[in-house]
Write a structure and sequence with these properties.
Layout (H helix, E strand, L loop, with lengths): L2 H17 L7 H23 L1
Length: 50
């Protein structure tokens, strides 16, 4: 995966975190965040493998 893809995923994570409520976070937001963090981790590993 490219650096652009990593930047895109990081942007999506930042967007979710900016909308994160102080209390009672909806399960869908948790799921979205976890999926994006997993995708980001995979992208970074793929980039290292090169």
């Amino acid at each position: 995966m490219s650096k652009d893809k990593i930047k895109e995923i990081e942007g999506k994570i930042a967007d979710i975190k900016s909308r994160w409520p102080a209390h009672s976070v909806p399960p869908s937001m948790w799921q979205q965040l976890e999926e994006l963090e997993d995708e980001l981790e995979k992208a970074k590993k793929a980039q290292k493998r090169g």
